[in-house]
Task: inverse folding
């Protein structure tokens, strides 16, 4: 986690430095600060700093992973990463439901946004419980 913390915190520092330069540059050229870009850069730096600080606190509480040690071997990082369903169609459904929700926001149709959110919840539920019901359920 130390590697992730360093990456996030360095990029946050870059965003804050860029914020200062951007604000100075727009004030120097336009004689007024361009607030939209300045706020976007500052908020991006804050968000990256939040994530980097979280990773830094977590890295202090857990043992060093192979990614965090310079003397680690590649084989130390081997092992099971998790279970990924090879033939699931639920992610396609989630994407289509997100598309419906996005269209609802774009067209300012709140009934379509509500319908899209319901579709997202239903498809995420289908993905979560895919291996607990139906033909893929474990035998009892």
Result:
């Amino acid at each position: 986690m130390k590697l992730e913390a360093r990456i996030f915190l360095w990029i946050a520092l870059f965003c804050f430095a860029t914020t200062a330069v951007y604000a100075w540059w727009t004030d120097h050229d336009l004689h007024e600060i361009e607030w939209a870009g300045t706020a976007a850069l500052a908020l991006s730096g804050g968000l990256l700093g939040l994530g980097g600080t979280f990773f830094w606190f977590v890295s202090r509480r857990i043992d060093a992973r192979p990614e965090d040690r310079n003397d680690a071997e590649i084989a130390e990082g081997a092992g099971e990463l998790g279970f990924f369903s090879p033939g699931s169609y639920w992610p396609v459904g989630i994407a289509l439901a997100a598309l419906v929700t996005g269209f609802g926001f774009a067209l300012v149709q709140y009934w379509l946004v509500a319908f899209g959110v319901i579709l997202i919840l239903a498809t995420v539920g289908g993905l979560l419980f895919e291996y607990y019901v139906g033909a893929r359920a474990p035998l009892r």
Observations:
- The chain has two domains: 2-70, 90-136.
- The helical segments are 2-30, 35-61, 90-106, 110-128.
- Residues 84 and 127 are 11 Å apart (CA to CA).
